[in-house]
Amino acid sequence: MVDRKKRAQELIKYHSYASGAFGLIPVPGADVAAVSVAQLNLIHKLAKLYEIEFAQERTRAIIGALMGGVMPGALSSSVLGSAVKAVPFIGTALGVAVMPALSLAATQALGRVFAQHFETGGTLLDFDVEAMREHFRKEFEAARNEAKDEAGEAPAAAPQMEEQPVQKAG
């Protein structure tokens, strides 16, 4: 059987990339809704993995409190990124530049925070949003930086071939 921590990391990675992809949805609001569903689904699967009773409304409240209390700037960018998609042509391009990275980072941070909480024996009923806010903020910043690093990696330079002296026939 696969180790729970490893399986949790796989779930987080999968849902984070899905959230990033959902950030590309060109319809304002639909992207945010799809990302929210992915995040809720991730926590549901983590709860199942750790044999924790899942409560959808409690989980939604926790997610909202964590994200709203830690990332007002990022959330406003996310909402702005979604809303700006309504502007023909340029809006879609601007929204596509903002939403995928924020969606991926937020989902990854949520997954990491919940997995750690469940790993240490916590449940949804004893999840202390106030105590976890700073941890979530740090995980969110780490995930954003990881995404920037991955996106900003320059391709490796093509290997240079050594010049060989040209030999004249003769």
From TrEMBL:
<feature type="compositionally biased region" description="Basic and acidic residues">
    <location>
        <begin position="141"/>
        <end position="151"/>
    </location>
</feature>
<protein>
    <submittedName>
        <fullName>Uncharacterized protein (DUF697 family)</fullName>
    </submittedName>
</protein>
<keyword id="KW-1133">Transmembrane helix</keyword>
<keyword id="KW-0812">Transmembrane</keyword>
<dbReference type="InterPro" id="IPR021147">
    <property type="entry name" value="DUF697"/>
</dbReference>
<dbReference type="GO" id="GO:0016020">
    <property type="term" value="C:membrane"/>
</dbReference>
<feature type="transmembrane region" description="Helical">
    <location>
        <begin position="86"/>
        <end position="106"/>
    </location>
</feature>
<keyword id="KW-0472">Membrane</keyword>
<feature type="compositionally biased region" description="Low complexity">
    <location>
        <begin position="153"/>
        <end position="170"/>
    </location>
</feature>
<feature type="transmembrane region" description="Helical">
    <location>
        <begin position="61"/>
        <end position="80"/>
    </location>
</feature>
<dbReference type="Pfam" id="PF05128">
    <property type="entry name" value="DUF697"/>
</dbReference>
<feature type="region of interest" description="Disordered">
    <location>
        <begin position="141"/>
        <end position="170"/>
    </location>
</feature>
